[in-house]
Each structure stands twice: as C-alpha cells, then as structure tokens.
Amino acid sequence: MVIPSSKPTVLLGALLLHANETVSQEYLRNALWGDERPTAAGAAIHTTMLRLRKLLDKYALGGASAGNIETVPGGYRISADAGTLDLLAFRKAVQRAGEAASEKDELGLLRSALSNWQGAPVANLVSPALHDGVAAALAEERINSLARCHEIELALGNCAAIIPHLRALTAEYRGNEQLTAQLMEALYRAGRQSEALGAYGSISRFLRETFGVDPGPALRQLHLAILRGEMLGAAVPPARQGTVVAVARPPADLKDFSGRHSELADIQELLVHQSTPAIVVVSGLPGVGKTALAVRLARHLCEGLPDSSGFPGGWHFLDARHKALPDRPAPQEHALIVLDGVRSSDEALPALDWAEAHTVVITSRHSLADLVISRGATVFRLRSWRRAESLAFLTSVLGPRSTEAEPEAADELAALCGDHPLALRILTTRLLLRPGHDLASAVGTVRATSPASLTVGGRQGASVGQRFDDYLGTLPPPCAELLRELAAAPENRFKLSEGAALLGRSEDELQSRLDELLEAGAVEYRPGGLYGIHTLMRSYLAFGS
Fold it and tell me: How far apart are CA 460 and CA 225, in angstroms?
C-alpha cells in the first residue's frame, strides 16, 4: 500500500530511516518543515504524532502500529526488525554476505539483499532534509552492494550478462565513476572497445557540463588502458578460483617487464620448497621494481602453471598503505599472499597473523630484518637490473635502431641511471616524447644533473627523486646525514677503516650507523668488506637533493 505524502507520513519515514534509534525533536522538526518551522514546533510535532498513531492503528502499515512508537527523553523511537522493515532486512543480508565462506555465497546473499529495494527510498515523501541526507546515504549503501556484485561477476567472466544492468545503473546515477568504470571494463572484456570508450565520453561530458570537472585519475587511467588496447589488471575474483581477493586491486602486470629471470627463480625456490609456509621479504630501494616482481611471480605461480605450484587458494594482493585487512577470513586452502608497500615490521604483523597458514611475499623499502627472528622470514635484497637487462629494456622501448646506432651512449645512459628500473623508464619516456633527440644528447643532459631528478608529469607521473625523498624521511636523522656525507666522498666503495678515517668517526660509531643503513636497505655491502651507496642515490644526494 502506498499512502500519499503528508506530515504524518514524513514523520513515519524519518522514524523508520532510524529504526530502533532515538530520533531527536530537532531532527524531526527539520524533516517536517525545514527552515519554515511553525512557532510552536514542539506542539506541532506532538499533534503530528497523534495523527500518525491514528493512521497506524487504522491501517497497520507494514506491520507497524502505534505501539511500535515510544516517547523517549529528547524524542521518539520506533521498533522494527528485518521481518517488518526492508531496510533492516537489506542490511542484515549485506552483513551475512560479508561473512560468507565463498564469493558464490556472497553473491547470492547480496542479490537477496538488493531484492529489498523497490525504487528510491522515501520517494513519495516531500522532505528535502530526508532526501538530501539519509536517503542519499542509503543510495550509497545500495551502490556499494551493487558494485561488489559486479566485481564478482566480472571475475567470473560474466561480462556480457551484466552490461544491460550496468547501463541502466549508469543512466540512473549519471555521475558515478565507480559504476561507469565497471561498465567500461565489462564492455572491453566482452570485446566491445568502442562502446567502452563511448561510456567514458558520456560521463566526461556530463561531469564537465554539470560540475565543470574531469573524471578522476582512476577512470582516466582505465580509459587510457582501453584506448591503447592494453590488458587490464585482474578483476577481483573468487579465492577458490586461484586468483586474487584484494583490499586493493593489484597493479597490472607490466607489458615491458624486463629480465629478473634469476631473481624469479631464486624467490620461487624459497617459496615452494618449504615444509612450512614461507615468508619472504623482497626489499630494495624505491623504484627498483619490487611490486612488479612480486606480481609477476604470483601470476606465474598461481595462474601460469597447471598445478598452481601448491597454491590451490590462489594469490591475494594486500596494499599495506590502506592499513586494512580483508573483511573475511583467510582462504581455507593454501594461498600465496602478496603484502605490498610495508614500511615497518609492526605494520606487517596484523597481515601475517591473518595469513598465518599461508605463504607470504612482502615488499618493502626496508629489510624488516627483525621478522627473520620473530617470524622466520627470509630477506631477499632486490638490486637494480644487470647491464644486459637495462640495455634490453632500452632496446624494447626505443627500438633497436636507436640502441644499435649508439651502443656506447646507450651503455652510458644505463650506467648514469645505475641500471635503476624506474629511472630508465622515466628517461625512455622523456626520449619518446622528444622524437629525434639522439642518445648522445640525452647523455649530456643526464650528466648535467642527477637522473633521479628527471620527472614525467601528469597525475600518473613519476619522479625517482620524490620517492627517494620520501624514503630518506623514514630514516633516523643521523643515518640520513651519514648518507649525505658518504655521497659527497670522492670514492663510493670503501672499507670500514677507510670510511672512518675519511669521515672523522670512530669505527664503532660508523659500524653502528652502517648496520642501521644496511637494515634499511640504503647502503650496499659487497664481498671484501666494501660498503657503498647505489649509484643513483649517490648522484641524487651529491646534487643537493
């Protein structure tokens, strides 16, 4: 039964939207009259409540009755449960979905929850306060549940099946970028690239005409990937299907991933031939490729091999920067967990407890050496590319004509960048943006400054220098200061006694600081007792970062 809007029905709507909670008289005054409140608003609410009680007694609307409404200090409260109020039934089913043992069960419960929605909430009530406030928040609850359904459907490959529903939703919520992104992804995965690009064009025009803004960076990045015809990162799939359940969507596997064959083999050996679940910390300087290596390894072990190499639970990507864990239990079957971007051992511990029975790969700028003692972890120090890998990367990006025509310049560019992956990516990007700029000229430019200072602009831009600055900010000030002193030294490789004499410090003091820097991954140790700083870090510090 639908009853016409009136003050009593607005009052009922306000109470039901906050069922089992005390609703203040001030809130009710705003819902009923907004800024045009009667002089004696308290008496007017009392009168409206009497009319509502009579209405409920007459019709027993939706299982509600006058006896469900209590007068409590400061306002009123209406009693309801999932059997009498669709909103509570929806929320209960969503909660059960979050606790489901599998994504298939979760999808079924979410669909059941969404079946409680019949149009927009309180659509028949004339109350701007309700529509602009709580009703808008309820719409977000619905969108969140719908989006999660689509994530599961995309992961299951049901792209074409959800396109009509997504089209209707993006028409209903025209400016919602999350729903548009899912429509674009579904269309693209279904082989309908032009329609996916058209969906982006529609929301771009709407946002510019309505709000004067462009789509956000995530949607623009997706649009660019589709425009280029790139492979998209894996959708968030069911854990039991052998792929990813994530707090954050994992980065896409790099199309130009270069080298790292021995590193991949070494870490795989550490992971798959253990009697107990292994923990491997992949540490290294910012931009050296830790995340790319971990993602490539996980996809190889869990998606590229027929037997999933002992990981029937698939692989799961957790972004430590989100400071969150999945709101579900860890997989029941043995899985590979990638915990990315950890800044300290303490930050890793909650995830390690969550993934206690599983194999874990942690990426971190620091060595997290204390996890070796407390959790039996193994530290794998990821260094820059070998020179051959750097040259292979330059050739793959710039083309063989460039590198074969100027082999000495290509080798010097790799040396100036310290074979650092991100620095070389930025350098090659800048060269591609300057057609005709030969490698020898680029050598002159890089010699004049640190290649770590080179940047690629835009929202998705990058700068090794910025990452180095962030990293240096995590070090104790005495350690950061020692790095700057070492960078200014005439020689980059030194023995402890030589460094102590050069810097005017005792060997004990210098050894203590070097140990800290070794654990932080800022200093390298070479056979023969030689210490040093990465070439790129040294040049960046020497140029006065």
Answer: 13
Of the candidates 435, 384, 437, 443, which has an alpha carbon nearest to the alpha carbon of residue 408? Answer: 443
Look at residues 482, 488, 493 and name the one whose alpha carbon lies nearest to residue 515: 482
Phi, psi of 282, deg, nearest 5: -95, 105
Q: Do 207 and 188 contact (CB within 8 A), yes or no?
A: no
Count of CB atoms situated within 10 Å of the CB of 131: 16
pTM of the model: 0.56
pLDDT of residue 10: 80
- With CA atoms as reference, report the closest residue to 185 among 169, 203, 166: 166
Taking the C-alpha atoms of residue 494 and residue 93, their distance in angstroms, rounded to an integer, is 65
Instruction: Scan for tokens 């509600």, then name that residue.
Output: 64
Q: Yes or no: say if 287 and 422 are a contact pair by the CB < 8 Å rule.
A: yes
User: What span, in angstroms and rounded, lies between the C-alpha atoms of 17 and 29?
Assistant: 15
CA 10 to mean position of chain CA atoms:
41
- CA gap 214, 220 in Å, rounded: 9
Query: In whole angstroms, what is the distance from residue 44 CA to residue 52 CA?
Result: 12
Place of tokens 């969503």: 94
Residue type, 532: G
Are residues 243 and 253 in contact, defined by beta-carbon separation less than 8 angstroms? no
The pLDDT tens digits for 327-345 are: 566 777 888 999 999 988 9
Cα–Cα distance measured from residue 290 to residue 137, given in angstroms and rounded to the nearest whole number = 39
Q: φ, ψ for residue 222 (rounded to 5)?
A: -65, -45
Classified as helix, coil or strand, 368 is coil
How many Å apart are CA 25 and CA 333, to the nearest integer? 53
Structure tokens belonging to residue 74: 């400061």
* Residues 78 and 64: beta-carbon distance below 8 Å: yes
DSSP secondary structure letters along 370-437: HHHHHH--EEEE--PPPHHHHHHHHHHHH-HHHHHHSHHHHHHHHHHTTT-HHHHHHHHHHHHTSTT-
Nearest to 134 by CA among 152, 121, 144: 121
Tokens of 507: 């060997």
Top pLDDT among 81 and 253 is at 81
DSSP line for 495-536: -HHHHHHHHT--HHHHHHHHHHHHHHT-SEEETTTEEE--HH
**Rounded to an integer, what distance in angstroms lies between the CA atom of residue 264 and that of residue 268?**
6
222-261 residue pLDDT tens: 888 888 777 665 554 443 333 333 445 566 667 678 889 9
Residue 378 backbone phi and psi in degrees, to 5: -115, 135
Rg (CA), the chain: 30
Note whether 376 and 279 are within 8 A (CB).
yes
Residues 479 and 476: their CA atoms lie apart, in Å, by 5
- How far apart are the C-alpha atoms of 543 and 285, rounded to whole Å? 18
CB 440 within 8 A of CB 431: no
Q: 316 forms bridges with which residues in the sheet?
A: 337
Q: Between the CA of residue 413 and those of 12, 287, 290, 346, what are the distances in Å?
A: 72, 17, 22, 39
First-to-final CA distance of the chain: 71
